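Notes from the 1:1 (GR / supervisor)

We went over the backlog. Supervisor wanted to see one worked example end to end before approving the batch request, so GR pasted a single chain during the call. The sequence is below; no edits were made to it. Supervisor asked that the structure be written out right there so they could see what the output format looks like.
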Amino acid sequence: MTQNPDPNPDPSQDDLLSSEQQQQQPESLSIDTRVEQAWAHWKKLGKPKYIVAPMVDNSELPFRLLCQKYGAQAAYTPMLHSRVFTETEKYRNQEFTTCKEDRPLFVQFCANDPDTLLEAAKRVQPYCDYVDINLGCPQRIAKRGNYGAFLMDNLPLVKSLVKKLAQNLTVPVSCKIRIFPNLQDTLNYAKMLEEAGCSLLAVHGRTRDEKDGKKFRADWGAIKEVREALRIPVLANGNVRCVEDVDECIRETGVEGVLSAETLLENPAAFAGFRTAEWAKEEGYVDGGLDQGDLVVEYLKLCEKHPVPWRMIRSHVHKMLGDWFRVHPQVREEFNAQNILTFEFLYGLVDQLKELGGRVPLYKKRKIDTPQSP
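Structure output shown during the call:
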């Protein structure tokens, strides 16, 4: 059942860190103790390495659960606006839903005021494993709102946001950043976050100006340098098209896990080894017995169980059925013309595409039978 967090939660001790940790705030703890606690928490969560990245309007509960079914081991919520979250009950109820299966979970906020951020964070801390600060959004709306990657121009404010949460929450604080053009600036930034109380750092290996992931490759070398410079767990983000890329990134950078965004939007089964045709051209890949139409149906069933705004559903259907719509553009036009969506219409859309033929499968590496010993 979908859970809308209570405005004044009274969590049990099972949901919190130990009472001793609550009393000893990070400012009074040595760096060694804080690092030790950061790793203990990460290990308690099972050291997830396949992680759903935060995506505005796209990493909501039903999609997180779908990715979890197909190999994701942790997930971020979409970025939530801390001020709106504290002020508007409707926004809280629509934009943040969860359930007991939805763990490990990072709840991500954008913010530029420490007190407002803390108020928002306290509302969600009983329902998550990290409260995450978005320090990487490069979009114009973030520039206008003075948050995300544009706080890279005001590092004292960033430090105050991290310290405020680290000293007052009962769950760890994580941060997601982009890199500076200069490597040393990036390393200084990451070390500052660690010293301020960040318990886990996710690094998107592109700069604030490198918005187009297809045009700019993520800099795994910079991520490796951050990993080697820090003592807390580090995650990587960028250049992941398939599950093998995750394993290669971990080998090259030494990070603990890898986030994926765009690849999962098109193919939520990527972490289970499935590939779209674009990335299955090498020898050994065969029809995996699953297609994006099947995934849309699974997603819609999860949305019926855990309601979310229709704009999110529309976006996911567009992404997941993109290959099919290119084969049957008239069906895409019919979908776009539908101002008011219903589940009946969307299930019928998938049926219509399948009846028209031209199924677009997801591919998986053929299993090679190992000869049995005599």
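Supervisor's comment: The longest strand covers residues 285-291.
Batch request approved.
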